[in-house]
Amino acid sequence: PRLWLIVPAAGIGQRMQADHPKQYFRIDQRFILDITLSRLMDSAPFAGCMVPLHPADHWWPDTEASQDSRIQTCTGGSERACSVLSALHALAEQVRDDDWVLVHDAARPCIHTRDLANLIDRLYTHPVGGLLASPVADTLKKADQGELPEVSETVDRGSLWRALTPQMFRYRLLVESLESALEAGLPVTDESSAMEFSGNMPVLVEGRPDNIKITVPADLALAGFILSRF
Ligand code: CTP
Ligand code: MG
């Protein structure tokens, strides 16, 4: 099977509270989206890459990636899962059912090449696929809702993981799982949750905890620091 890459970049980065989406912030002069795309495209033999963009995006033509003939774009949707599904549909003519699709957030530029290679190696012969994940390090509390939430219990973190990306699944299984999960109105915050809903249980491959998603302004400096140490 061949490998395909989808990098959802159609979000507006509301939590960054800026006047432009976070994938178009710069670290060391380069767009975050360019850093993410080049790190991935240079590290694995992808047959192609699809990047869903916001319909009002006008930054893409200024990226390095827009000059790369292996990278195509399509129009994203209102939720991350809709953007990913639109990219999957856009790839339909070129892909075979059992080909692998890796989905990686544009906002995760700190993906380490060794984690990417490890994910592909571990899952390549698996029937479903899986994702990078990192064991939870903090002590976790369960609490009721409220202004001053009161702890009801400490959750055993022994079996808990943070879901990261890339998430890597067989093309046909992923399309069908996303379509049925969205139709059913289920909360689909990553590809893995759609697979879980359809009963195709993903495998976890341990990845570096510094594969952070840039979400709030402070994450920008942190990502710059992490990248400077690779
Ligand atoms: N994304 C997307 N389409 C959407 C929403 C998000 O392609 N409708 C992408 C984002 O561009 C990002 C990734 O999915 O690369 C992870 O989403 P998130 O971190 O939530 O980014 P935003 O939605 O842009 O940020 P926010 O939730 O703060 O608005
Ligand atoms: Mg979002």
- Please give the domain count: 1
CATH architecture identity:
Alpha-Beta Complex
Main sheet: strand order: 5-4-1-6-10-7-11
Tell me how many strands there are: 11
What share of residues is helical?
Answer: 25-40%
- What is the strand content? 15-25%
Ions, cofactors, ligands: which are bound? Answer: cytidine-5'-triphosphate, magnesium ion
- What structural class should be given to the helix and strand makeup? alpha/beta
Order of helices and strands: EEEHEEHEHEEEEHHEH
Q: Which geometry do the CA atoms define? A: globular
- Termini distance? 30 Å
Helix count, per DSSP? 6
Gyration radius, in Å: 18 Å
CATH superfamily: Spore Coat Polysaccharide Biosynthesis Protein SpsA, Chain A
Largest sheet: 7 strands, mixed
Function: Catalyzes the formation of 4-diphosphocytidyl-2-C-methyl-D-erythritol from CTP and 2-C-methyl-D-erythritol 4-phosphate (MEP).
GO molecular function, one term: 2-C-methyl-D-erythritol 4-phosphate cytidylyltransferase activity
Keywords: Isoprene biosynthesis, Nucleotidyltransferase, Transferase
Family: Belongs to the IspD/TarI cytidylyltransferase family. IspD subfamily.
